[in-house]
Amino acid sequence: MIDPASAVKGGWAGAGLSGGPVVLDVGATTTRVTIPREDGLQPPRYSRTPALQGPEAVTRHLATEILSLNPRPSRVGVAIFGFVEDGHVTALDTSIAPGWQQFPLQCRLEEALRCPVQVVNDAHAAALGEYQALGVTENFLYVTVSTGIGGGLVLPSRTGGAAYSGPAELGYVPVLTPQGQQLVEYLSSGSALSRLAGEQGYRDVQQLYRAAEAGDAQAEGLIRAALAPLAEKVLGLTAPLSIRRVALGGGVGFRPLSLKILTQHLQASLCPVKPILQHAVLGDSAGLAGMASLTPLLSGEA
């Protein structure tokens, strides 16, 4: 378990090891890499994640990005899509990232880089980064809607002791539909909306959203229906855990219309207590900031 209040104070500041640290936020579409500094994060460098080429190609890409930025990293933190356990990564949606079945990413990167590597779920890292930026003290949920869907929880202790933080696998929760059980990620993610847009004659997700924002009732209806399962599962998580604050991120999540529709879905619920939904204040840097906050885990500090 991680104490966010402690983790976010240390950051990567003061890393005196040769070469210094590097942090990455690896989505199924975009990879961001940067060097943490005393005064914050260096502006990140962006590249396209070769997710469709499989985990070996992604590993090579990450190693290349890291070494081109820092030839001798002292430690590396990787926030990545999918389910992460003991440095192994699994992605259930093979249409987005094929071949990721318990792939030992941490071990492979440590072999390539010859330094300690920590791998965590990207939404978990983003939740920690956003929690730090907001300065909240109550239970907190971060939701990302991008190529896939992810979530991260931060549950501070009421007594000031250790807290829990970790991934909230919203995208991998099944939903009962007329076609049977389907994952939320298959119904509500950016890739799902892209597929839906093509089926309905729209060029891509961007055109679908532009049409909806311009008053196209059909386009807005498609988006509204697609985001409904996600809103249902968000509420199913926030209600029992008394989560009052939810931050929304990701390429699709950052669209104003996505925030509006998800808020309307939440407000229409019978649940008497609805969470406050807002866009992430850190934007797409939340995952990098959160990964930097996990330095104590990498260095063995308390």
TrEMBL record:
GO terms for molecular function: kinase activity. Pfam families: ROK (PF00480). The keyword Transferase applies. InterPro entries: ATPase_NBD, ROK. The keyword Kinase applies. Keywords: Kinase, Transferase. PANTHER family: N-ACETYLMANNOSAMINE KINASE, ROK (REPRESSOR, ORF, KINASE) FAMILY. This is NBD/HSP70 family sugar kinase.
